[in-house]
Fold this sequence. Notes:
The chain is mainly beta. The protein contains 1 helix and 6 strands; from the N terminus they run βββαβββ. The relative contact order is 0.28.
Amino acid sequence: MGMFDTVWINCPRCGEQYEAQSKGGGCTLKDYNIWDAPQDVLSGVNDTYPFVCSKCHSSFRVILHPTIELVNE
Length: 73
């Protein structure tokens, strides 16, 4: 089984927490909030895009530049 870090993202539509895996960075099984995760961890967040909220079923993605932005699709 591979190792990864978890980045918690709130759905931009309903606010439900979404658990995104990242294989960027150290992959030491740490948990981060999207707003305080290190840049190297954030670089791997979109590897599982699109994100689909389990509560409202909207899809969204993370835009990292120039600042973090959550966007509904």
